[in-house]
Amino acid sequence: MIGFIFLHRDLLEWEWYQSSEVSRLYIHLLLKANFTDKKWQGNDVKRGQLITSANHLASELKLSVQQIRTALKKLESSGYIIRSATNKFTLVTIVNYDIMQSSNSIYNKQINPQKTNHQHSINNQSTTTKESNKENKLNKEKIELRKENFKKQVFEHTQFSNKILNGFFNYWSEFNVPKTKMKFENQRGYFEIEKRLKKWSENEWKTTSKNTNQKNTISNR
Description:
Blueprint: H1 20-32, E1 38-40, E2 43-45, E3 49-52, H2 54-61, H3 65-77, E4 81-85, E5 90-94, H4 97-100, H5 117-155, H6 162-172, H7 193-219
Antiparallel strand pairs: 1-2, 3-5, 4-5
Helix pairs in contact: 1-3, 2-3, 5-6
């Protein structure tokens, strides 16, 4: 395998950077993902995707299968990858792969040095403004993609009613003031959607039951 990938220094501030298994796995997935669309045994594997398995990744990274599964779950619940599993393999999609790996990305452009300090100062201010505007736009695009991915993950749990799924999604997908994160992304530790949905459903049932009892009590007076 030849070529290279782009890694921005923002990675140092990434929430999983200090987790050796998660950060190793994520960089490994970036390196292994298709750079162009391909076919594999009759399956379409798009740019930014790869076909693999927990056992195969464990062998490549010299980690246990359980460590790989845990790391994959963290990456998926945090919105960095999407998994589509079959009985033979797992298709992994890197979220925002095109944005991260584009040579035209604002992350990968360098500002040309100016001839004089005065010109440098003026041009630097202009560049900073443009870069800031582009970054704001990029952040907006990224969070909208993350929101769509989060919605897809929530509505996969069809054992819950649409009312439960909509209420859960609307609550946890709320943006912060600068619109850089959703409410669920500010949660520390794990965010297992299925377990949280189960708890949400139980609380909804308790609330509904309580309100019904109160109405019955009032009507019987």
